[in-house]
Predict the 3D structure of the following.
Amino acid sequence: MAVIISGKEVSAKVRAEVKAECEQLKSKGVTPGLAVIIVGDDPASRVYVNNKKKACADVGFVSEEYALPAHTTQQELLSLIDKLNNKPEINGILCQLPLPKHLDEKAVINAISPLKDVDAFHPSNVGRIMIGDYHFLPCTPAGVMELIHSAGIEVSGKNCVVIGRSNIVGKPMAMLLLHENGTVTICHSKTKNLKEICSNADIIVAAVGRPEFVKDDMVKDGAVVLDVGINRDENGKLCGDVDFKAVEPKASYITPVPGGVGPMTIAMLMKNTLKAAKLQNNIE
Ligand code: NAD
């Protein structure tokens, strides 16, 4: 039987810490501010944006929403970002992805000031993560690390397997495990012998985007299993990338879906926004 690492509990603790620090900042005349840009009317993006605004209110931040119509031009979006880059009350800028197809996501990410890039997607922040000298970490991998730390799991010297190599989860996740001296293997859709590689892992992070992809025969006894996936099964029920029922009895620690990595992402966004506010106001 595995210990179930509760993202609900850990994220509540992170948020409470951010809230307490926010109060201290306010006493110094600084209120952290996050601008959230949403273009178009994708229902999933709307839910994410609402959750982010609510999280800001809960920890005491100011949030500004910029809801732009789907036909917004690249120039209009870039000029909004420029305005927010220069707005002192805004410390973090987040542009909800995906953007409508006619907009250039890369150019939008590049336009956000690296000091306000609380998603840590800007190439200069990505580079800083690579060399281990960063202000912000991307929220989901940072959330996974927070869960690992909360459970007192040692990464150093462990065989770590990250399944998935996306820029927002897989690649930075691998880097963070490497920074803690894990021996890291990144697997992806072209990996051969995935089962064999996973079976040797002490720590598995699944970020594949396929319902219940990781089965018990891929996991060794006592492995730590962290599930980033957010999928729907054939009945439309929320599920992760790990077959929880089958894997849980073999694992030593496991995260559930929902209530695992998911709630950590927004908590880490709050942490990044707080840090941005401190950096921009020269507060240690
Ligand atoms: P993505 O589609 O960009 O990347 C998926 C990765 O899985 C790719 O690198 C691909 O090579 C790999 N992959 C696909 N099929 C594979 C196979 N058969 N074997 C091995 N690897 C395979 O997805 P993403 O944005 O990295 O997200 C991954 C999952 O995490 C999704 O379910 C997504 O919804 C979820 N997610 C959750 C959060 C959160 O807050 N918890 C945040 C971001 C993403």
Observations:
- The two ends are 43 Å apart (CA to CA).
